Each structure stands twice: as C-alpha cells, then as structure tokens.
C-alpha cells in the first residue's frame, strides 16, 4: 500500500500540489525521523516544542513555532535540510503537478475550475499510473482544505467513469475515499508540505539573492532523486 500524502503550495501565478508516496513499511520510520529533526532543533536552539510543525513557509521565514530562529538563517536551512534528508533516506517517491493560474483565467475566465481541483485530478492520474505500474494500491491523505466533499465526489466519479482531458483514465488503484487531516497532526503531511513549498519556491524564482537561491537549490537537491514526475498544465 502506498500511503500518499498531499499538500499544496501556490501563489498568484501558479498552483502546485505535491504528493509523497510512502510504502506502509516506511511510514513509521519516516515519521520518527522527522520527529527527531524537531527534537534536535529543540535541544540546539530552545523555545521550540517537540510537537512543532515542520511547515516550509514558517521555517524559512521564522514564523509561528519557528520564530526563535529569526536571527539564525543557517539554523533554519539546517532544519529544513535535515527534514528533507529524512525523506531522501527512505524508499519513497514524489509526484508534483501544477496549474498555470494566469493562463487558466485567460482561457476560461469565470468558468474555470478551481486550480486545486485541476491539479488534484492530474495528481491522482499520475499516482494511479505509478501504483498500477508497481502492482500497488494507494490511499490518499491530503491536508485539510476547502472543497473536501467535492474532491471526494470527484474521486468517486474518476473510479466510475474516468477523469477528463486528453489523458483521461479510469482510476483503479486508489482505495477508499480521499482522507483529509490536519498537517499539524501528521509528520508525513508536513513532509509533503516541505516538498511542495520548496519546489514551488524554486519554480517561481522566489529567491532573488544568489545565496538564498543556492541554498534553496541545495535543499531541493536532497530529494530531487526521489521525484517520479513533475509537471505543470498550461491551458
């Protein structure tokens, strides 16, 4: 069984979803490794709770539970890097799908589907392709968001009649419904967030300072070998 953790990262121009495909045999070990990253940060820097959420934006910007690291840039990069390395050290795969929001609005206007729905559809297709190719089943656990019931209904439709578009396919490997959980409660959802956030950050060129750009690319290099597929739909 592939436990498939999904989270989003978006800006005005693009909307990305990242999926971490984690075999059931790897889940406990990876969660424990991520716990260790937070606990080490707690011992090294203080004022960080052992239950602090590994949230990409908050770590890099020293917000929320990571505010103690406001004046410790290297420490923030170190925490992020150790978390991504924990992912890289496990037998997992990554799938990333995005939507060009500007082109979407230009082509479809107010009739456009929500970019989350579109990216999720394309993500499910890719998960299904991967799972089928490896004789696996997949269970999707996504971060809580608006429209949860709609996305669960769409998954049921994809099982019965298939997805839409020129790569339409009937989904046969995704079991049960699409489950939603708070990322605060799940280290593996947090891993999906770290992945989606950093990929999005690099794709849109958020880092203007060469040193920051180099740091982000160095972080991404840790998990890049785990990427099975990455793409964006430009309507």
Describe this structure in words.
Strand 4, helix 6 and strand 5 form a beta-alpha-beta unit. Strands 5-4-1-2-3-6 form a 6-stranded mixed sheet. The two termini are 33 Å apart. The chain contains 8 helices and 6 strands; from the N terminus they run ββαααβααβαβααβ. It has helices at 24-45, 56-61, 73-88, 101-108, 115-133, 148-160, 187-203, 210-223; strands at residues 2-10, 14-23, 93-100, 138-143, 179-181, 227-233. With 235 residues, the protein is an alpha/beta fold.
In short:
This protein is of the alpha/beta class. The chain has 8 helices and 6 strands; from the N terminus they run ββαααβααβαβααβ. The chain has one domain (2-26, 94-233): Nucleotidyltransferase, domain 5.
End-to-end separation: 33 Å
Structural class: alpha/beta
Tell me the major beta sheet: 6 strands, mixed
CATH class division: Alpha Beta
Strand fraction band?
15-25%
Q: Output the number of helix runs.
A: 8
- The topology string of helices and strands comes to EEHHHEHHEHEHHE
Q: What global shape is seen?
A: globular
Q: Count every beta strand, where a strand is a DSSP E run of 2 or more residues.
A: 6
Task: Report the average pLDDT across residues.
Answer: 97
Low-confidence sequence ranges: none
Radius of gyration: 18 Å
């Amino acid at each position: 069984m592939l436990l498939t953790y999904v989270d989003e990262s978006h800006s005005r121009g693009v909307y990305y979803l990242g999926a971490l495909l984690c075999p059931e045999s790897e889940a406990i070990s990876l969660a424990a490794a991520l716990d260790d990253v937070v606990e080490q940060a707690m011992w090294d820097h203080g004022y960080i709770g052992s239950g602090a959420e590994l949230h990409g934006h908050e770590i890099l910007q020293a917000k929320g539970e990571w505010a103690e690291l406001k004046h410790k840039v290297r420490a923030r990069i170190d925490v992020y890097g150790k978390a991504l390395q924990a992912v890289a050290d496990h037998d997992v795969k990554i799938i990333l799908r995005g939507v060009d929001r500007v082109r979407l609005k230009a082509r479809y206007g107010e009739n456009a589907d929500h970019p989350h729905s579109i990216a999720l559809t394309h993500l499910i297709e890719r998960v299904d392709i991967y799972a089928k190719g490896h004789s696996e089943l997949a269970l999707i656990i996504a971060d809580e968001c608006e429209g949860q019931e709609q996305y669960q209904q769409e998954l049921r439709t994809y099982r019965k009649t298939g997805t839409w578009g020129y790569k339409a396919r009937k989904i046969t490997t995704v079991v049960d419904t699409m489950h939603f959980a708070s990322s605060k409660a799940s280290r593996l959802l947090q891993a999906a967030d770290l992945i989606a956030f950093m990929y999005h950050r690099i794709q849109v060129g958020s880092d203007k300072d060469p040193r920051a750009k180099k740091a982000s690319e160095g972080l991404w290099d840790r998990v890049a070998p785990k990427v099975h597929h990455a793409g964006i739909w430009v309507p």
